[in-house]
Amino acid sequence: MKKQFALSMAVLMAATSFAGCGASGSSVAASSAATENTTTEQAAANPDMPYEGVTLHYATTDTAATGAEMLDVVAMVKEKTGINIEFTIIPNPKEGEVDKKLVSLQAGDELDLVYGTTAQLKTYYNAGVLEPVDQLAADAGYDMAAVFGENLPIYDDGKTYGLPAFNDIWVTFYNKNVFDAAGVAYPTADGWTWDKYVETAKQLTDIDNNVYGSLMLDYDVYNYMLAIQKGATHYKEDGTANYDDPRFKESLEFYYGLGNTEKIQPDSTTYAAGVFPWNSFVTTGVADENGKYGAAQFGMFVCGGWVASMLPNAEKYPRDWECGIAPMPYPEGEEPSTFAVTGCYAIPTTSKNKAAAFEALRCIAENQYTLGYGRVPARKDLTDEEVLKYVEDTMVPTYADTDKITAEMLKDAWFDSNRTILSEKVVGPADVTISQIWTSEGPLYGQGQQDIDKTIENIQNRSNEAIKEESAS
Amino acid sequence: MSTRIHAALPHKKMSNLEKKEALTGYLFVTPYLIAFVIFTGIPFVSAFLLSFLNVKYITKLDGLKFVGLKNFVRMFASEETMAALGRTAIYSLIYVPVIMVLSFGLAYLLNKGVFFKKTIRSMVFLPYISNMVAVAVVFQLLLGPRGPFYLLQKFFGVEDPVLPLLSLKWALPTVVLISVWKSIGLNFLTYLGALQGVPVELVEAAQIDGASKWQQIKNVVLPAVSPTTFFLLISSIITSMQNFTVIQALTEGKPGQSTVVMSVNIVRTAFTKYETSYAAAQALVMFAIVMVITIIQWYGQKKWVNY
Asked: Which of A104, A224, A271, B203 has the fewest other C-beta atoms within 10 Å?
């Protein structure tokens, strides 16, 4: 009896483990079948919408998928092309974490659309998971270069691997309340240099009352921004790292000096300890009856234009002050400049609906900026009048309720053709590793754990080793 | 025992009952074997093969080449990887002795008559079943610039208070100690079970012979629990090298590279640099190191483990 019981238990265990695998497998199969049904390209009745009824799978984060902008993008694509977009939720990696989207694509998961900056998509291109869109554009009779010019993500093989939808241009956001309380004039585009920025921030800072004149995050670009704005490049002509250029040392000293010496913003140690989250600029809350705030206030915040998308969201970021926008500061004696990163959409090689995906891609790239989320279009075919109309008719109303940002402010910050646009990211051999080197070595100097010369020496040597390793592999 | 009998009588035919028994045994181990082959066996063989190839992205296999020991040579020539290996050694050298001594000490104390024995035992075991990310958040707050550790240093007049998780010098030892605190529950519980199996008459005999407490522990208790110590020593060494989660959650390898150990380096090589073969080679070297240490201990146990 005992033996029979043992035998039946063993059979049950083995069977359930197989059943477990089987159940999971069939569920995948069912889901695949469902996918096949929904994504099969259908002959559309409407000749203007040849891909009407096709469902595409867009890989994005939960935050983006539930955000108003992405929901509007989906509705827009449906309205203009008849194509349905379904989200496949894949979390964004933090620094040093696995890029699950890329892993998913390498594993062969069927996705039709992915988003990434030009630099991020370069990694995807290196991995061979992106479809070149040149032939798709030719088949559709679409002149990509005429619409997007140099913003197109063209990589080493000379092919185009997606379409750009918007440029994220760095600006200075400022809290008018902090300026008013200190009796300081708002910044303007004319002569908005770093010297002026520091001087203004000093006037605004009142640490006893938890008010800082400035806020910056811990991105790689803050470490080298001054050097790049002064004309330094990441690589020498022979392809080795250029960080022994004295401008990089000056840049590090400048950035960390803002917190350590000038004391106009939280120092690197305090920021690294997580005292101030990345969205501290807009999470100030509202003042109590005594005019006091529960969280720190920041006079100015130099960051990418993406910050603007948080401004109209009064529900998530309630505040009782208005935000202004000025251009990014530039070094004294240099030409005005700013940083930018281009946001692109691309088609993975695993897509089963590449023609339909291109149609959706084109629709998003051409029109996402019109949805009213403060995006700066990556299109090069827009006339000055069209840009002005966009600024006045779409961008200004976006911030009308919360911040009353004027068309002039927006034009100065984002549409100044005389301002040099520099790459926010390191782009070149071992760029991802070099970016990590900056964010690991820079703070050591900022936190007083390593002197400036040793820091620069480490950045230079480690970058060269990374470049050498990449070329050897 | 059954295996020995079969080995001694190779020609004896199995009875139906024995066949049934064997079948039952195979069926019981089948689920484990399937999972082992899929999740450990195949990946291990793949890693072994990959380490001799030049694979970067697994989707780009067009230029696939056999490169011999190039990935291993590259690893030992890389200053950063060797530094990570060194940090792994430091991590293990702190982790293993501390967890072994503390878990034995705690188990010995809590095996005696102590007030709130059960509550204290539960408290020691609780971190083991806690979520690592939650633990990391709590320690980041406790050891941060607004946490009690910092404020306490200020209170006692320390001019330049240490923020352990942000200090080049202290980050690694701090991470190790947090890891010990998190993992000690299992070692503690295992020791507690072993201590309860130590024959009371041996301890009493030692007491009658006038042995001090320390002599009782050294000459009676420790030899009696030596098989458990041997098991925990090996498992603790292995655990000390599986430290990716604790480091990623607490410091992400920072400040600088002070907490970049081999596990972090391997993951970064594989998933941020996408150098699959190079990462596989590093993983194999780690496997070989653990294997050698285990073999040495296995042969060395004859000198100090009493079964």
From this structure: B203
Which domain covers residue B35, as residue numbers?
1-50
Answer whether B48 touches A (CB < 8 Å): no
Q: Check A13 against B28: CB less than 8 A apart.
A: yes
Q: Does A189 share its domain with A244? A: yes
B229 falls within a domain: yes
ipTM above 0.95, yes or no: no
B146 close to B231: Cβ distance less than 8 angstroms: no
Strand partners, A86: A57
Instruction: Please state, in angstroms and rounded to a whole number, the distance separating the CA atoms of residues B6 and A174.
Output: 83
CATH number of the domain to which A121 belongs: 3.40.190.10
Q: Is residue B156 part of a domain?
A: yes
What digits encode the pLDDT tens for the residues A309-332?
888 888 889 999 999 999 999 999
Instruction: Provide the token pair at A219.
Output: 């991105």
Question: Of A158-167, A366-375, B174-183, which gets the smallest average pLDDT?
Answer: A366-375
CA dist., res. A215 & res. A200, Å (int): 13
In a domain, A7, yes or no: no
| Cis ω for the linkage preceding A329 (within 30 of 0) | no
- Whether residue B294 lies inside any domain: the answer is yes
Whether B79 and chain A come into contact, CB under 8 Å, resolves to yes
Which residue of chain A comes nearest to B16, CA vs CA?
Answer: A3
Contact A272 B57 (CB under 8 A): no
Pairing assessment for the beta strands A297-303 and A376-377 based on DSSP bridges: unpaired
When computed from its CA atoms, the radius of gyration of chain B, rounded to whole angstroms, is: 24
Query: Which positions in chain B touch A6 (Cβ < 8 Å)?
Result: 24
Task: Show residues of chain A in contact with B255, CB under 8 Å.
Answer: 272, 440, 443-444, 447, 449
Q: CA–CA separation, B169 vs B82, rounded Å?
A: 18
Residue B64, in any domain of the structure: no
Per-residue pLDDT, A56? 97
End-to-end CA distance of chain B: 17
In 3D, which of A54, A86, A89, A88 has the Cα closest to residue A71? Answer: A86
- State the smallest CA–CA distance between residue A441 and chain B in angstroms: 5
Question: Which CATH number do you get for residue B90?
Answer: 1.10.3720.10
Maximum distance among all Cα pairs of chain A, rounded to whole angstroms = 94
pLDDT tens for each residue of A40-94: 444 456 778 899 999 999 999 888 888 888 999 999 999 999 999 999 999 877 6
Judge if B197 and B83 occupy the same domain: yes
Q: How many domains does chain B have?
A: 2
Query: Both tokens of residue B235?
Result: 């498992």
Q: State the total domains in chain A.
A: 2
The residues, ordered by sequence, that sit 6+ positions from A376 with a Cβ below 8 Å of its Cβ are A166, A167, A168, A169, A305, A369, A414, A415
